[in-house]
Amino acid sequence: MDISKFSKEERAAIKAQLEAEERAEEANLQRERQSYNAMRDEFVTRTFQSLKQLSGCMQEQKQTIFEESAELDTMQQRLFKVKLDRKSRTLTHSDGHISIKVGNRLNDGWDDSVEIGIEKVREYLATLATDEKSARLVNAITSLLAKDQKGTLKANKVLELEKMANESKDDTFLEGLRIIKEAYRPVPTCQFVEVKYKDENDVERSLPLSMSAMDI
Fold first, then answer.
1. 143 pairs with which residues across the strands?
2. What are 145-148's contacts with CB under 8 Å, separation 24+?
3. In the chain, how long is the greatest CA-to-CA distance?
4. pTM assigned to the model
């Protein structure tokens, strides 16, 4: 369309019409944005209230689980004449189809004296002969003294170290290990509840207790 053939009045009318259409489109877009904002706010508010209620129920349920499992643990120790010092406990239904584990997750932690114990162990390593057999032992012990990326000695490696120390019967090695063990200061990170069950096909499964673990 050659607009140059239109009169000045016609071109002005076309321009006015286009501007009116643009304003209408902009107004419509603004209404849609306002509608979106309202729907978003309603979703966030409604979902928050729902999840807040769910979180409160889960908190109460967790409290109940820990209290009742602790009571059962006390009964078990009294009835079976055992004294257990454990960070977690597992309760399993008599038919074996459901088990619930509750406890505290711990991160390894040590006080400053752990370095003295480690130095004692290194002192023992320095006394070893330099033959092939002792070299393998030195490498094995050194690997158990290695710290993780966070600079923390792993408690499970200390247990392996204890076996070596007992086999060596070396006083320096044993003293170093004793100092290391006494320096252990585990750091609680969270209280957990885990549930496992067997489905209709007798396959063991974990019951998801967090939204991140649930498939949809």
1. none
2. 145/118, 145/121
3. 111
4. 0.68
